[in-house]
Amino acid sequence: MTSQQVFVIAGGGVGGLTTALALAKAGQPSLLLERASAFREVGAGLQLSPNASRILRALGVLDAVMTRAVVPDHVRLRRGSDGADLTKIPLGDAEKRWGAPYIAVHRADLLAALVEQARREPLIEISNDSTLTGYIQDEKGVAATYRFDGEFRRASGAALIGADGVRSMVRGRLIGGDADKPAYTGHTAWRAVLPAASLPEPFRRSASNLWFGERAHLVHYPLRGGAFVNVVALVEDAWRGESEGADPDFWDNVGDRKFLINRFKTWCKEAQNLIAAGDAWMRWPLFDRPPIDSWSRGRVALLGDAAHPMLPYLAQGAAQAIEDSAALAASVAASPDDPTAALQAYSASRAARARRIQEASRAQGEIYHLSGAKAFARDVVLRLAGPGRLRARQNWIYAA
Ligand SMILES: Cc1cc2nc3c(=O)[nH]c(=O)nc-3n(C[C@H](O)[C@H](O)[C@H](O)COP(=O)(O)OP(=O)(O)OC[C@H]3O[C@@H](n4cnc5c(N)ncnc54)[C@H](O)[C@@H]3O)c2cc1C
Description:
Blueprint: E1 7-10, H1 14-25, E2 30-33, E3 45-48, H2 50-58, H3 62-66, E4 74-79, E5 85-90, H4 94-98, E6 103-106, H5 107-120, E7 124-127, E8 130-137, E9 142-148, E10 151-157, E11 159-162, H6 169-174, E12 183-195, H7 201-204, E13 208-213, E14 216-223, E15 228-236, H8 257-263, H9 269-277, E16 282-288, E17 296-297, E18 300-302, H10 317-334, H11 339-368, H12 372-392, H13 395-398
Parallel strand pairs: 1-2, 1-11, 2-7, 4-13, 11-18
Antiparallel strand pairs: 3-6, 4-5, 8-9, 9-10, 12-15, 12-16, 13-14, 14-15, 17-18
Bound molecules: flavin-adenine dinucleotide.
Flavin-adenine dinucleotide binds next to helix 1, strand 3, strand 8, strand 12 and helix 10.
């Protein structure tokens, strides 16, 4: 392989790492530039649906992920105000139904499994402490400039993949314009990982739990073999005018616990106790960018949140980044000598589905956050629909 054939990947998150592995499986070398100096123990829990775990299995990484994961038996839907059960949607038989498991895993454990696999792969070179600062492309290849250890370096390759997250620098260059800048959605995720032993037994059950409330919802599920419970409280600013604003998002942005306790004061005691049990809540203001129809320009393409940031209400952001990686590698395998055509085919194969999931995620959030008569109608529909029909509604996402 010459350096011209290397794929330069900017960003070593779930999307970038999975892409490096998928390209390697297709025989393509890559150089992965990650701005962080090391892959740290960051983040909280992620739910990974069968459409993603199936690809991790094909990449040979699922077994390692499963050693630290939990397989929730069902998702339990509840009303926040009084804790009433609305329904339970079975998940434990995902392997049988959708051909791969539905799992809950700590982001750090997923990243560790991906990094370990990538480090064993001779076709992948990982460069930490490497921040992409610019690129140029012509008909022969791409030259990416990055900052490493205080100096600027240049990497040449066949193509550049911008897997650099919702605030993607590559997207800023590729799409540009004020309308495409990341914008605060008015929604903030508060996240805590609690020792399971500190919580009553119902919180430790192997289930994914989703509670609905006015302009807010609550999610919790066990992590790391059940040793911890991941809790996410999603709140909209536009509730009685209470807001903490959109400070910059970063993993260790600690929020004011008192704000959150007050925000959930109208919820049932059980939910309030869960909120109060967290003493270190991390705030994660959610940013968004509009859907775009084409993710590539010549030899440069976007992937993951850089291509299709989405509200986390269908738990699909990382899953879609994983789907992107498989689609990209398949397109490259189909046109190994024509990166421009491969990137175009990749974008064409993915953009419509990602847009649909972006839009469905937003709509889902609106349903979760209803109040008054509309919330009452939602709860009636959920109860009447029954678990089987609700589960079948996930087919278009999970069976892909
Ligand atoms: C509260 C919450 C809950 C979520 N729950 C789920 C869930 O249950 N299931 C699910 O599938 N998804 C979930 N998501 C979404 C998921 O976290 C993201 O969609 C996913 O992390 C996107 O991966 P990515 O690799 O595209 O981007 P990121 O994870 O953002 O990774 C981008 C990487 O690029 C690096 N980078 C940035 N700029 C540069 C640069 N210039 N040069 C080099 N490196 C750079 C960053 O350091 C980072 O490592 C959730 C998100 C939130 C906020």
